[in-house]
Amino acid sequence: MKNFALVSLLSMLTFGALAQTPSWVNYVNRMTDYPESTHLVGYVAEVNTTDQTPEDLLQRLSGLAKDQLVENILVDIKSISTLNIHNVNTETQETFKRNSTSVSNATIAGLKAETYYDKRKKTAYAIATAKKHEVIKHYSNEISNSLDQINTNYQITKNQIEAGDNQKALVSLFQIQTAIKNVEHSLTMLVTLSGDFNHPGLKRSEINSYKVKLDKDLNSVRNTEQFSLEDAAFYIAYALHTQLADKTTPILVNNFSYQDTPMSSAFSRRLQASVSQKLVSQGFIIATQGGQNIKSLVLSGSYWEEGSKLKVSALLRNQDNGAAISSAECYLPKETVTSLGITFTPENYKQAMVNMKMFAKNEVKGGALQLELFTNKGKDNLIFTEGEMLKLFVKANRECHLRFIYHLADGSKVMLLDNYYIDRDHVNQVYELPYSFECADPFGVETLQLNAQSEPFERLATKSEYGYEFIVEDTEAIITKTRGFKKAKTSENIKAEKRLIFTTMKK
Question: Any residues with CB less than 8 A from the CB of 283 and at least 6 apart, and which?
Fold first, then answer.
């Protein structure tokens, strides 16, 4: 199978002693030279507050600029999926939504990075750019080439089925399924960048044709269409076992999310535990959730309601480049889940979706301010159960003011910290909030909203109760006052926003 690798040009390090200040350091010039309509851009700037050499600092910022460019695309993917844009091709939109939660990286064709160090100001700058039309062309070609390879592999698989070699056929079908996941990844990127759900490069009819044939052949070879919960966990583990010869790299198993959301449920927790157990029985090593520096593969999954069944989709990815390595899909009757007393819909799903749509409008993206937010359990598909302790960590790459707001499952909003200042001495250092939180009712989907900006935030109306500052304004007003006005065309807006979605539940 073709390895999906990052296509990029080598960075050119430009130092103040060797060149004049590049035009892109200026915000207006940068917007003129690299307009959003034709370019993808990542930009960062940072004062050198340590003894770090300019060369090392520029190299780090070059990587950050590339990461920011990719993150801007991922924010767009989530926004498009959450806002549920209408009047588009239904099949393409459904595929887009099903892949929106699993896209963790992006292949950027023609990516260029440039850096500059101002010795007088002791400030480093980095920019990463790519022409949209080149990246769109890249994904169109990826889809076309991958479908050609899938067609070749499928003919081999049909011969295996006709020869009665079901074991080899099953492995081949798993590999084709994973290849289709990579194609759908390219489809998601192509739709996002082109803004066209009917782009000719999508090859929609061909993709759907292979998916139908794949489902039919998988059901024939494995002799069943539906599973119990434990059967589904074993099937997912077995699919990975047949496709991975090397089992020495730990696998981080995320909680399975509900449809195209980051929300989880009691079913998510049970399935994650069962899959982890079955992977161990297949000889795999399970990584601990929350480990920030562990080199591991990542198994993510989602489940979708389809009539009387739940369709479970699992995808194993390389954490470095986001390429799909292995995948598995199966169905469970809803009745087999509910009969165990397990709920599969997040408790406050409808209200949580309303909040997510409000957050998705005019999302804060890009800019020179880089912000990281994570918990003692990491940052993806988070589940905390009654009595567990939550710790929060943040890191910023420049001086800024922080605002932490926690949106509880019952609709209450708590101001955890407001206008907390990250000074020069704490830039690029992980800061742990001076609170630990014990998971307690109300249970359901909850959101931690972190905003950062160079200027102090506008005050929000609050009232003190139970030792906390509860915000009395509604979510829409909170978002408006916290994000502030849109950036002017003549000046750069130093803002950043991160959100973590939690699902809290009883033991």
Answer: 241, 247
Tokens of 49: 């507050």
Predicted confidence (pLDDT) per residue in 381-398, tens digit: 899 999 999 999 999 988
First vs last C-alpha separation in the chain: 43
CA nearest neighbour of 251 among 220, 278, 222, 276: 276
**Tokens, residue 350:** 């409808």
CB burial string 435-472: b at 16+ within 10 A, e below: eebebeeebbbbbbbbbbbeeebeebebeeeeeebebe
Backbone angles phi, psi at 265, to 5 degrees: -155, 180
Residue in 413, 416, 487 with CA at minimum distance from that of residue 454: 487
Q: Positive or negative, the Cα torsion across 203, 205, 206, 210?
A: positive
Query: pLDDT tier at 359 (50, 70, 90 boundaries)?
Result: confident
What are the backbone angles phi and psi of residue 446, rounded to the nearest 5°? -130, 155
230 DSSP 8-state letter: H
420: tokens are 């907390």
Amino acid (one-letter) located at 471: I
Give the C-alpha separation, 379 to 320, whole Å: 17
Task: Return d(Cα 69, Cα 9) in angstroms, integer.
Answer: 15
Q: In the 3-class helix/strand/coil scheme, how is 340-379 assigned residue by residue? A: CCCCCCCCCHHHHHHHHHHHHCCCCCCCCCCEEEEECCEC
